[in-house]
Amino acid sequence: MNRLPSLYLSHGAPTLPIDPTLPSGAFTHLGAELPRPRAVLMLSAHWGTQQPVASIAAHPETIHDFYGFPRALYEIRYPAPGAPNVAERAAALLNAAGIATATTEHGLDHGAWVPMLLMFPEADVPVAQLSIQPRADAAHHFALGRALRPLRDEGVMVIGSGQITHNLRAADFGAAPEDADPRVAEFTDWFEAKLAARDVDALLDYRRQAPHAALMHPTDEHLLPVFTALGAADDDYQLGIQSLGTYQRVLAMTNYVFASAAG
Asked: Which of 23, 47, 64, 184 has a CA that sits 20 to 30 A from residue 14's CA?
């Protein structure tokens, strides 16, 4: 099997699968266009632990970790099989790299099952989830990706799921897409220019260097998964950008594909 890309997905609101005003079709298209993995290792902004934990659940439950949404959303189940072997392999790679990692049984939170539902609607791609560390920095999450790189040669797609900008306190839920705060584009333009230049040092220092970083990410758990996807990528990766717009004034959705230069 050819080396798989690593991905960072902006999973947006939990209503992405049921709200026709949101860009669910882009995720469906992405799943159809990318090479099909034998399994996915998912890092979601919504499962945080002190140290990395890999889920070895054979049949992960669909976790509805949100409140106040339409009833139809709580009725969705995503019955994809787990990937215990992938979780164990990921834990072994991290431990070998000196990053203490545990295993447990954990379901799929909405940062995991929402994009999986859209990309692989038949629920026939096994998925394991690996926790992020909200109190650790970008460099830590980049190191996770570096340790996980071999998975890409083993048919496993490493996916980070979060949001390229995420400040719910600054969001205006009545705003139209054209009402986007211009500071969103300043931040995302900077981030994408550094990704395109493969300027890892600047990206890891984004909180100091990127314009409006603290406004776009008062806390950075929704951005941390991108650094693991970046770490798992080849040094000479080819960057694919899927821009999906800005919602509620400050919530941008962009997906990044880090493809192998060798194809």
From this structure: 184
Question: How does pLDDT run across 28-83, given as a tens digit for each residue?
Answer: 999 999 999 999 999 999 999 999 999 999 999 999 999 999 999 999 999 999 99
Where do we find the tokens 């496993």? 156
Q: What's the pTM value of the predicted model, to 2 decimals?
A: 0.97
Is 217 exposed, middle or buried (CB count within 10 Å of its CB: 0-12, 13-18, 19+)? buried
User: What whole-number distance in Å separates Cα of residue 125 and Cα of residue 94?
Assistant: 23
Give dist(CA 255, CA 19) in Å, integer: 19
Comparing C-alpha atoms, which of 166, 186, 184 is closest to residue 226?
Answer: 166
Per-residue pLDDT band for 1 (boundaries 50, 70, 90) equals: low
